[in-house]
Amino acid sequence: MTKIQANNNKAVVNLLWTGGWDSTFRMLQLSTKDVIVQPHYLIDGKRRSQNYELEAIRSITEDIRNLVSNKCTIRDLILVNISEISEDVDITLAYKNVAKNHKLGIQYEWLARYSKMVKNLEIGDENGSAPDSILLGAIRANGAIKKMTDDIKGEYYIVDKSVSSGDIIKVFGNYHYPIVFYNKLLMKKEAEEMGLMDLMNKTWFCHTPIDGQPCGICVACAGTIKKGLEYRLSKAARRRYKRKKLIEPLMKTYIIRSAGKLKRLIKTTKLQLPLKWNSYGTQST
Q1: Which structural domain, as residue segments, surrounds residue 168?
Q2: Is the pTM of this model over 0.90?
Q3: How many CA atoms lie within 13 A of 148 on its CB side?
Q4: Number of domains in the chain
Q5: Interatomic CA distance for residues 233 and 205, integer angstroms
Q6: Is residue 121 part of a domain?
Q7: How far, in Å, CA of 75 to CA of 98, rounded?
Q8: Tens of pLDDT, residues 57-108
Q9: Burial (Cβ within 10 Å: 0-12, 13-18, ≥19) of residue 31
Q10: Does 230 map to a domain?
């Protein structure tokens, strides 16, 4: 696989697009600029939501291309299976080192390897509550980011390699971060001002859909609700979310108590094991 080459006439923006809220918002921002957008989607083979995400990308791409206000050119989506990404021992080790102190998902390991292959890949991480803020927290704990300004595509941030650790540079140093200081409600406000909320509402977020609709109980659904976008879930999904919130503390208490009882039972049983005669005629436990 080769690096994406720049276009001689227009700026080419490589965008990691999942069909989700954050990366789609960035796509809408780019639609107001005279650039060529090259979207990328990585396939890990384990996401039950993959087909929903790809359908969202297809539908939103078509809508953007038909917008009267659209100024960008969107290239066809590049689909890459993570098994096709070149191995990189240094990046893998750096990811493991960073992940010791920060709860980074495994996707940051293969994304880092992919970002080495695609020049200035934009990633749509936002400064919301966990897990989104984990990336920014990891960078700041071991370095810093700095603001850059581009006359065409606007402001974005990069890892400041002069003050960041080698591990941070390997894992996060190849990206551009255009929306790292946004949160979801700020994106919603800006999308409303652009008159493009109908496109934002086509984005997909649920990891484990039920009957083709967001489930309300996965991490992504919970995050969507906590970040002020509860309206995107059905009444049934919101009820499932509330039930889970009620049950979770009870389940944790039950598990802790059960573990304690089991530990005491094992200890008591071990002390009360009957004596047995072994083949040498002596007693043993």
Answers
A1: 12-202
A2: no
A3: 14
A4: 1
A5: 10
A6: yes
A7: 34
A8: 999 999 999 999 999 999 999 999 999 999 999 999 999 999 999 989 999 9
A9: buried
A10: no
User: Does residue 145 form part of some domain?
Assistant: yes
Query: What b/e string do you get for 141-164 counting C-beta neighbours within 10 Å, with b at 16 or more?
Result: ebbebeeeeeeebeebbbbbeeeb
Q: Under DSSP, is residue 40 helix (H, G, I), strand (E, B) or coil?
A: strand
Interatomic CA distance for residues 186 and 188, integer angstroms: 5
Cα-flanking dihedrals φ and ψ of residue 192, to 5°? -65, -40
Residue 32 tokens read as 């107001």
From CA 222, how far away is CA 129, in angstroms rounded?
Answer: 11
Could you tell me if residue 243 is inside a domain?
Answer: no
Residue 180 is encoded by which pair of tokens?
A: 């790292």
Token digits of residue 131: 């897990």
CATH code of the domain covering residue 136:
3.40.50
Closest CA to 169 of 179, 158, 161, 180: 161
Measured from the Cβ of residue 91, the count of other Cβ atoms closer than 10 Å reads 23
